[in-house]
Amino acid sequence: MSATQAALFDEPITAPKSKRPVFSIFTDITCGEACWHAKEEICRCSCGGKNHGVLLENGAEQPIRNAKIDGHRYTLAAVGKRRDIAAQAATLNGAQYRSVDRPTFVVDGTTATEEQFQDARAKGDPRAFVNQYHYQWSETDAGAPARLKYATPPQRDKWPELAAFREDNDAALLWQIVDMPAPPAIKMLDKLTGETASAQCPNDRKAEQLARQN
Ligand SMILES: [Zn+2]
């Protein structure tokens, strides 16, 4: 982390903890912006009410935190134990592929032209398929839609959003990118038909797999 980033991460507290009584229903829901700006009296997320309405001061909303990570602008989307917010980061990163290569066509173990592939398909040749490399975003990639960072000890000490994690080494921050990267220009093709695939991002594929199981 550079000095500039450290300064951004350790910016002063913007809002004191709300003194309102909060009734908490503990759930697996990730503690995030909805909780920090919540006005209702019941907290339904994993912080157990500690962060509830923490970014409201006299009813006015405080800005959420910003950070620049590897040159990209992010806002804080959630806090929690790293393993608890990893799925949310994966969903954000699964909204599109990082990149998709041009397809190549294979017939009977040999590289073929698209025309040769289509001919083989038309004849019902089962040895014809599309080969296409594609790459997913990871929470450690520069410019990824979502980044995960462990909370530093000064952050755990000072940030109102981290009130539930003062002593917790697993406390992490989920940062969501402000300007989404452009989706890949090349479309994924169906491996067997060569048509544009119905799944164009990791989340689509996951949904298809779930639908097949049910
Ligand atoms: Zn919460």
Furnish the topology, listing elements before pairings.
Layout: H1 3-9, E1 23-24, E2 31-32, H2 33-36, E3 42-43, E4 56-57, E5 60-61, E6 66-69, E7 72-81, H3 82-93, E8 99-100, E9 104-107, E10 110-112, H4 114-122, E11 128-131, E12 134-135, E13 146-150, H5 153-158, E14 171-177, H6 202-213
Parallel strand pairs: 1-3
Antiparallel strand pairs: 2-7, 4-5, 6-7, 7-14, 8-12, 9-10, 9-11, 13-14
Bound molecules: zinc ion (ZN).
Keywords:
23% helix; disordered N terminus; 3-stranded antiparallel β-sheet; elongated; 214 residues; 6 helices; binds zinc ion; 5-stranded antiparallel β-sheet; 2 domains; alpha+beta
Report on this structure:
The structure is a single chain. This protein has 214 residues and is an alpha+beta fold. The protein folds into 2 domains: 3-84 and 147-177, no CATH class; 99-135 and 184-213, no CATH class. Helices cover 23% and strands 24% of the residues. The chain has 6 helices and 14 strands. The protein has helices spanning 3-9, 33-36, 82-93, 114-122, 153-158, 202-213; strands spanning 23-24, 31-32, 42-43, 56-57, 60-61, 66-69, 72-81, 99-100, 104-107, 110-112, 128-131, 134-135, 146-150, 171-177. Strands 2, 6, 7, 13 and 14 form a 5-stranded antiparallel beta sheet that branches. β4 (56-57) and β5 form a beta hairpin. The protein is elongated, with a radius of gyration of 23 Å. The model is unreliable at 1-18 (pLDDT under 50). The structure holds zinc ion. Zinc ion (ZN) binds at residues 31, 35, 43, 45, 47, 51-52. Zinc ion binds at residues 31, 35, 43, 45, 47, 51-52.
